């Protein structure tokens, strides 16, 4: 099982509402995400995935749950679609892709969330607080 996190314990960590520094090279500041979200085109399905993730208990969601949010089935499709969205956001925020040995679309998701692979092909994602704050500031959530 692969585990990619940038913080010791993503579930119990505490944050300030004003995160102004980068907590990892592939993780933006709130303002980076706000700028990116305002500059890209986001489909209704992509918006639904972001909302579902941000509103999930503990900001935790799986690829399968992401797929179900947009009317699809299967972890692979959920992770792939979320990865494509994450790549758009990362490019607009001028963030590098996380260095990892996973597929490009999975690596892109680390721009939005910490992740750990489950025993299956599914991934468990915990959205970065910086992304949540940006989604609130842009009124997506």
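-> sequence recovered:
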């Amino acid at each position: 099982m692969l585990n990619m996190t940038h913080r010791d314990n993503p579930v119990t960590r505490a944050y300030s509402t004003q995160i102004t520094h980068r907590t990892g090279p592939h993780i933006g500041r709130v303002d980076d995400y706000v700028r990116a979200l305002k500059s890209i085109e986001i489909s209704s399905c992509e918006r639904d995935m972001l909302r579902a993730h941000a509103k999930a208990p503990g900001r935790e969601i799986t690829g399968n749950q992401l797929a179900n949010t947009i009317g699809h089935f299967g972890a692979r499709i959920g992770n792939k679609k979320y990865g494509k969205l994450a790549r758009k956001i990362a490019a607009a925020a001028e963030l590098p892709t996380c260095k990892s040995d996973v597929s490009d679309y999975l690596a892109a998701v680390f721009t939005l969330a910490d992740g750990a692979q489950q025993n299956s092909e599914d991934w468990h994602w915990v959205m970065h607080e910086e992304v949540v704050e940006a989604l609130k500031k842009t009124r997506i959530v």
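Strands lie at 3-4, 60-62, 113-117, 123-127.
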